[in-house]
Amino acid sequence: MPESVHKSIAYIGHAFMLVLLFFSLYFCNERMLHTDNAFCTFLLLNTEDFVFSHNRYPLVITQLLPLLAIKLNLSVQAIVAAYSANFYVLYYACFLLCLYVFKNVRAALVIVFGLLVATKEIFFLQTEICHGLVFVCLFYAWNNYLPEQPFGTVKKGLYYLLGAVIFMVAVTFHPFAALFLIVIIGWDIIERKNYKDLFSYGVVFTVLIMSLLKAKLTPPDSYEGSFYKQTDTLFDTLLHLPASYTLRFFLARIVDVYAIPTAMLMAGLVWLVFKTKQYLLAGYITLATVGYLLLVAVVFKGDSDLMMERIFLVFGFMASLVFVHFVFKVLEQNQPTPYRLTMLLAVVGCLTGGSLFILKAATRYKTRLAIVSNQSALLQQQSGSKFYSTNDKFTYPYSFWANSCEQLLYSAIHYPSNLKT
After folding, report:
1. What is the pLDDT of residue 237?
2. 3-state secondary structure of 89
3. What is the pLDDT of residue 154?
4. CB 3.0-4.6 Å disulfide test: which of 52, 174, 188, 278 passes with 128?
5. Main-chain dihedrals φ then ψ at residue 228, nearest 5 degrees
6. How many whole angstroms separate alpha carbon 2 and alpha carbon 5?
7. Alpha-carbon distance 124 to 5, whole Å?
8. Which of 232, 229, 251 is nearest to 295 (CA)?
9. Which positions ≥6 away from 44 have C-beta within 8 Å?
10. Alpha-carbon distance 159 to 141, whole Å?
């Protein structure tokens, strides 16, 4: 691949990571003043310590900036902005590590695509699945790193320690991210034809054991267990697959938010089958993608549209893996300039499309924030600091289970001398 094209790909990646970081700041209130995000922000402000909801300990790295802002006694608005930005600062850091430390432009670009092409409303809710998927890409870059100089004993030990840390973060964030790690390791083995790679097989085996233990130790009546169907219903769900809410959610949006990743996946598969004759690689990723969609259709009960989107982030990352492979293989053939420009435009077009979906979803969350604002203005007209409202007052298509936290945060930002909840 010409050096100029290589740099162009990297610049495109930087540009869209910065777009995401800008969005996280510009829409910080729309992102952080509702439901789970508002609840976690409330806990951070009141405990001034890390919040590990449901024992998700890797969340510590997503809370560094807001806690720093709290320790510096910054305003509530600054803390909210710092918390919103922390996620994309973290993702950008992983992108930079892939690009400049592990010299893996493909892994870096998969991060950018994965964050954008299957994202709409989920941009407005932090999710452990997304965190884990980004770290899976970082682990993929680490696993394929070939240093120019051989490691010394100490450096080699530190290198493997770093890999172990990245691996544990990736796997323990969420079981669905762990599944993507298995998929990407299998892809790597087939692509490199390294079928005797015992280390990679060991990684897959470790992920499987950890995932099985996680499933076994998650009580069915716990918060996480409540989202999944129990084993005695799985066979019945398979027999009635078209009735699966999860599958119907995906198919209903196949021409909307999932049109871009589906087109990317198909383009990559066509290239693998008809151009390069890599039938094994094409068959593997097809089975992995269809298998994942069937898996979540069978085991996942369903949830709100916002929460449902997080389930299909894995699909977006799988499609991104295939498409980035396709783009790089085409560009590596040193095609004429118009041909290379077409590929670069395709990259920009897909990422721009994902960005536009976020902007479209922003309208919905601006509306929601306006509702919170109106509530807060009404409360300011009342004496006292604590109020209640009956459920029939909430006729909007939004969840308000954390409304008490939302009102405290909103009034702390806009009416700091007169807090209401």
Report:
1. 67
2. helix
3. 77
4. 174
5. -110, 145
6. 5
7. 33
8. 229
9. 50, 51, 63, 66, 67, 70, 79, 83
10. 13
**Residue 71: both structure tokens together:** 């320790």
* Token pair listed for 191: 């692509």
- Residue 30 three-state SS: helix
Amino acid type, 23: F
Q: Is 277 helix (H, G, I), strand (E, B) or coil?
A: coil
First to last CA, the chain: 59
Question: Quick one: tokens of 139?
Answer: 């682990």
Element (H, E) at 351: helix 337-380
Give the other-Cβ count within 10 Å of 9's Cβ: 24
At residue 74, the pLDDT reads 97
- Is 105:146 a contact under the CB 8 Å cutoff? no
> Residue 306's pLDDT is what?
85
CA distance 163 to 145: 11
pLDDT value for 333: 80
**Tens of pLDDT along 346-372?**
999 999 999 999 999 999 999 999 999
Q: Which residues of the chain are under the pLDDT cut of 50?
A: 232
- Distance in angstroms (rounded) separating the CA atoms of residues 193 and 195: 6
Which runs of consecutive H residues, i.e. helices, occur in 117-274?
Answer: 128-143, 153-173, 175-192, 198-217, 234-239, 245-252, 259-270
Which tokens in the block code for residue 144? Answer: 């394929």
10 Å Cβ neighbour count for 232? 7
Backbone conformation region of residue 54, classed left if phi is above 0, alpha if psi is from -120 to 50, else beta:
left
List the one residue out of 42, 64, 40 whose CA is nearest residue 52.
40
Cβ–Cβ under 8 Å, residues 63 and 48: no
> Crossing angle for the helix pair 259-270 and 279-299, nearest 10 degrees?
150
- Residue 357 amino acid letter: F
The reported pLDDT for the residue numbered 1 is 64
- Of residues 203, 207, 172, the one with CA closest to residue 60: 172
